[in-house]
Give the backbone structure.
Amino acid sequence: MRGPSLLLAVLLWTTATLAAPLQCPKPGPNDTCPVCGMFVAKYHDWIASVVYRDGQAHHFDGAKDLFKYLLDLERWAPGHRAEDIASVGVTDYYGVTCIDAHQALYVIGSDVLGPMGHELIPLADEAAARDFIKDHGGRPQLRFGEVTADLLRRLDAGRFE
């Protein structure tokens, strides 16, 4: 029993501490963020994406709008259901690659602004989050489930307390 238990513990630790790379579809030149209406492709360093099981994708100009969308799917994507989502990806700040949004860490309150101002900065792991905070300031990292509508409203208002 020790072998399988140890393997399970290692797998859980790995998935809890490292954001997995994803194959995210690239937005086209006319794809717009369903939340703010901005053309997404020109902000390649900030792109976030939701891909549904049927292959349809919605793209965002940053993690903040992605979370607004996910927290109010009925408003931003009528007819879509959370259980039909196949993957959610964000762009890692340092690697500029698509990573699993559920496993990423997010920093707020830094000196780095995204296309829509104050932003959730996605990072692949705890070491990157520590380096980012050292380089750019900000509040300790958040996990996917800790992002709330209230936090997003405070980000839009430039309040990070």
In short: Residues 19-157 form one domain. The longest strand covers residues 85-91. Helices lie at 2-17, 63-71, 73-76, 126-136, 149-157.
